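Milestone M4 deliverable, item 7.
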Amino acid sequence: MIILAIETSCDETAVAVSRDGREILAEEIFSQVDLHALYGGVVPEIASRNHIQVLTKLVDGVLEKAGLMKRDLDAMAVTYAPGLIGALLVGVNFAKSAAYALGIPLIPVHHIHGHIAANYIAYPELKPPFLCTVVSGGHSQLVDVRNYRDLSIIGSTRDDAAGECFDKVARVLGLGYPGGRALDDLAQGGNDKAYDLPRANVDGSPLDMSFSGLKTAVLNLIHNAEQKGETLDKKGLAASFAAAISDALVPRTIQAAQELGYKHIAVAGGVAANSRIRRDMERAASKAGCSLYLPPLSLCGDNAAMIACQAFFEGKPGILEQLDLNAYATMPL
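Output delivered:
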């Protein structure tokens, strides 16, 4: 089954074509990072306009790279939720038009389902059930992946997502946007015990997380140092902050897997690229006797390959979406 997938949930315009989900024949990603860096974050209107400008060219380029014609496609897939509504609508309407013109099915894919599916590309042997920790700019969740379409959240942040905290702290430190990679680079060689930062627990919900108090503590620490003219150990602060985020995610991941009786653990989302989290996950999983699946850095961020992969498992006979598909800024997993 040849599927062409489109991902436009935020500021990355991504297109990919796959065979049977796990084999990616070609992909393209147009990054808008430089366009939004000036504003310190994503400007939805700019993101939407740039998706419109480059999407057709990317689709043509991917088909040419894969050596395919439009008539070779068996289905179109598209991210329809969650994300920036204007950006999502660009992708959804393009995919609907293409599917209608080509007379092929249209398969809607939930963005977070896609992130989890990135591991199926990197690890063809991985099959549900398993526990997946999803960490991105908008999500921090522990997900029970029962099968390819049946997923359940068993733990989640009660406030900010880990990725949002990384970006906010990086911006206040003057590292620019996006801040996750810059903060990770800064933390290398830093003393992760330089600053005593809080770790939150949610009373009665041991698998749930809270990052707002940690974020506030770090921002207050930075502002107080600036006001008093004190020298801030930025490398130590970055390392201490990454350790605090990891301490919230890793033990809960292991606990969730043990409660479910799973020996397979995956991580997904943009924050899965963080070196401290990857290192701590590897050590903890090994100690617990679990197999760990970490996607390569190229599959951690937003991409269309993961959407094409999940679409293969979504696109079974009888459940294909009709052309009245809409986009949604929020959508439960």
